[in-house]
Write a structure and sequence with these properties.
The structure holds four protein chains of four kinds. Chain C is mainly α. Chain C contains 13 helices and no strands. In chain C, helix 1 runs antiparallel to helix 12, helix 10 runs antiparallel to helix 12 and helix 12 crosses helix 13. Chain D is of the alpha/beta class. In chain D, 29% of the residues lie in helices and 23% in strands. The longest helix of chain D has 18 residues. Classes of the chains: A alpha/beta, B mainly alpha, C mainly alpha, D alpha/beta. Chains A and B meet through helix 2, strand 6, helix 3 and helix 4 of A and helix 1, helix 10 and helix 11 of B.
Amino acid sequence: MSVPLIETKGLKKYFKTPKGDLHAVDDVNLKIEKGKTLGVVGESGCGKSTLGRTILRLVEPTAGEVLYNGKNILDYGKKQMLEVRKDLQIIFQDPYSSLNPRLTVSEIIAEPIKVCRTITDKAALDDKVYELMETVGLAERLVNSYPHELDGGRRQRIGVARALALGPQFIVCDEPVSALDVSIQAQILNLMMDLQDDRGLTYMFITHDLSVVKHISQEIVVMYLGQCVERASSEELFRKPLHPYTQALLDAVPVPNLRHKQQLTGIIKGEITSPINPKPGCRFAARCPKVTASCTKEDIQLREIAGGHYVACALY
Amino acid sequence: MTEQQRKKTAYKKKSQLMSIWHRFKKNKLALFGLVVFAIMLFIAIFADFIVDYERDAISQHMTKRFMSPSAEHIFGTDGFGRDMFARIIFGARISIFVGVVTIALALAVGAVIGASAGYYGGYIDETLMRIMDVFLAIPQMILAIAIVAALGTGMVNILIALTVAQVPKFARIVRASILTVKTQDFIEAAKACGTSDSRIIARHIIPNAIGPIVVQATLNVATTILVIAALSFVGLGIQPPTPEWGSMMADAKSQMRYHEYLIIIPGLFIAFTVMALNLMGDGLRDALDPRLKN
Amino acid sequence: MLRYIAKRILMMIPVILGISLIVFSIIELSPGDPVSLMLGDGASAQAVAELREQMGLNDNFFVRYARYIGHAVTGDFGISYRNKVQVVNEIASRFPTTLTLTFWGVAISVLIGIPVGVISAIRQYTFIDAASLFSALILTSMPAFWLGLLLILLFSLKLGLLPATGVATMQHFLMPSVTLAAASMATIIRMTRSTMLEVIRQDYIRTAKAKGASAFRIVYKHALRNALLPVVTVIGLNFGTQLGGAIVIESVFAMPGIGTLMVAAVRTKDTPIVMAAVLFVALLASITNLIVDVLYAYIDPRLKSQFVKK
Amino acid sequence: MTEKLLEIKDLSVIYKTDEETVYAVNDLNLTLNKGETLGLVGETGAGKTTTALSIMRLLPDRTGRITRGCITLGDLDITRASEADMRLIRGNGISMVFQDPMTSLNPILTVGEQIAEVLQLHRLDMSPEQKEKRVDEILEMVGLPADRKHEYPHQFSGGMKQRVVIAIALACEPQLILADEPTTALDVTIQAQILKLMKELKQRLNTAMLFITHDLGVVAQICDRVAIMYAGEIIEIGTTDNIFEGKKHHPYTVGLFGSIPDMTKATRRLNPIEGLMPDPTAPLGGCKFHPRCPQCMEICKTAKPLNIIDGTHAIGCHLFAGGAGHDARINLESTGGAE
């Protein structure tokens, strides 16, 4: 078996709060093959954003390993890390706060190149900026505009261009389309998929939107309160969701199709709680319709049920 | 020049300073403030070319005491026969100089403290901010008086006293603006491509945090001018015979029943200078604030 | 709630110690020698040395600081160099004047500042709004002592309506209080106006409108309390500034308060008085801030629920 | 038999500031029948919220203005009613549920007080005890325990806050609820809870609802009829069946559906509409969609398209001009739920 491009082993990130440790990411294991997209879904507060940031070492993990091409980047020193940063990039959700309002479009796109000095010649840098702008579909007349002069869709294109500037292998996409209107969202999704086809990019696509995640990813991880509760190929997960939380999530998605009109029956009660000092056992137990006594006794590990289909549930 | 560069120059870059200036210009009151302050600054800088310091502002002329404003002495003369106009314009030099220098120094020191606290956070932040809190608990005027009590009066001591009293405020302001910027995603984006701390501070944080700090600095020059005048008025600031607006009023207080102009004219100059700075500060805030509105 | 108050009081102790340390250090820097000040220039070297020993001036800085604090907690702030009275008595006799002045200053600024600010906000862009903003601008730009002098000029010297100096009756306090109130009134007007404008734009105000509430009800029931919360903090913080202002204003109106005492003490290098006065004022400002904070926690349910257990 | 409740005729709304004039709603026609749920769908800036605020007469004081048209609720002409009359309508005849439950409750009043306020304003005949009882009742109706009425909004989660907002809206059993993206700020599982709640309550109280959303999935779940808005106009309206199952559609509607990834089948590329919304400050002649329309014809650039009726279905597009054969000026109002 080939070495996955990205792999995490027992990755944990706890934040200290006055009320105790917040288990934002709790023992997450995942693998992403080169050229593929891993979707990470979950509701707000499930730790999916922190997971993405921890993998990139924008947040230092509490424990665990992050392997890039089989090597643990958490062991890397400053210099090695700088080198590997060129390969690992991120696209943010909020197209407003992710762009420095004092820089022009070309300055924003050129910034990573200047920092890493991959191109030092001024003219070549300009050429590169134009090339990137063309790649993401930004008209060249916008080169000296400021982000606040542009709409959300164009701003997100700048964010994509910036992420591409260093020619990365892997991009964490943190809800890149959630702030956009559907028609613009579709334009950006198409762009990202085209880029993946052209450049063999690997994505970790974080979102709360199940229809988007199904569309774009080959494999999906479902997260609940910092833990991965189910992991399967996209097709398998939607065809045969195993974890009661995944089932509830899928039931809750409103489908724009009358024939699939849900009866709003399989709705789970209650709301997500906070992952501060969680009790042992399944974190979904409090809301789970199929809860049993064994669910709250001890932590339930993610186990492979069928080929490539993992679930953390006492029922299986 | 490559073709690309030519293209780039074709789409002209709009300077952000220019667009701020355009918005500032629209605010007539702020523009008025700027003009008034510019005039005061001009007078303060070129005072020596307008009147002679020794002859007009310092030397006593007992034959010319309490002369009401006239063509010869447009603001009249004081109890020692000195020309009020000359003393007023040299007073402008002191007030504006001390005000601006104090704030510049306080800003510089406060910025270092506030920036370290805000950027590094944690233990450094906690320690520095607790110390600043203690300083802030002492009312500014009282702290200044205490320092004057220790060092004695005189311009340099006043400058030190006022600067020390202002540092905590600026440390806080700088820290707060840095914290606001620090949480934005573009800082994270910069970190993601390995940008160094110093570059993040210089290129991403400072340009975005500077606006509110400049506004506060402007407004604080105004309050500092008021404090200098007040300290001098109670006799703990600039000492006579050096012409200073506040001490001029203290001198004239006993004769104000018969010579109101000795009180009214210096007061008006303080009020106008301070108002000009306030208007400028407000105008600047409006020009910078609307989140770079579309 | 009691626990919160207790916690806040405990948190004040290091602040007060910090203040005293700062003030003590500043005073230590002062070049004048207290002994020669007390004995006059003609004292013999032996007398000076004896007094130094007696006053403990030969001990190191921290020993002296600790001793000072030790005495201070028992109410002993030393003896004035000039008129040889207990400092604490001197402060106590001057204190009521300053407190009365500051109280009225705060009261006037709040009682006028808040309503004007509110009206200004709900009548935004009208003549009333412009007028109140303009007055606020004028008031913040005027030196307080100048305003005091102008009031004396008009009401005492020209019209003969009010006494220019002294503290004998309430009338004596009228002009000083108004003078003291002016600048912070302007701050309160601007602050109230801007928070009010901000609150009016909030979603919950729209919810209230959608319920069919009248404009008046929306202002007094929904907007006002929310808008006043930040203003309360500003009033608390302003109290220190007001105390500082009181010092200058006491000089203008020749009132025997802490301010005039302090100014005179600085001029005559009467260090024990200066130290005690600074400590006193800083302490007062801190206590006021504490009271405001507790009050705030009481009015704001978001804070309150953190401390009150049902 | 259906009965008209709300009728909007030729409504135009502008926002005027010193710098520019935004044409937010342009000649909008709409009818809402008693007890029916009409979905108003469109992207940001389509004029959905403006329409709702116009019905409530809550447009921003200084800038927003209705320039043309009328809105009638029963016999009352809302555009001409006095402010005092409007106050009686708001919260009583028409209620509104807002998008962000985090900010739409007053942080310093208990939720009980906030629900009781509507009763104090509109149920003058009720005794204080009756009001208290009604508050308990309504809280339980929206699925919250009555004893939580003494708590403040910050003690509730987002979904629970939205339940409180719905409780406020329903307290006086209004004839019409305007729900402005009530579930957009919520997580999917909570969204499903709230949608279910709204659907049940609406049926129980027989309230009509104008449901504003950008999510076609939500529309499919709870709406009887759907109106699609683009640049301040309704470009297509029909029953949910017409919109989701019908053969003919406005090109914008086609693009909107093409933009959503379909969960039921695998697609590699989406078919979005290219381009952006037109600048609302510069009114555009002809069909508002023509610069982005893949099937744009000459006539589209100059003439405003007609509204072609096909039973319950109307489309504002020249493509269907020759279609079903009808007179030039057709109102949308007669298209309401004829089945």
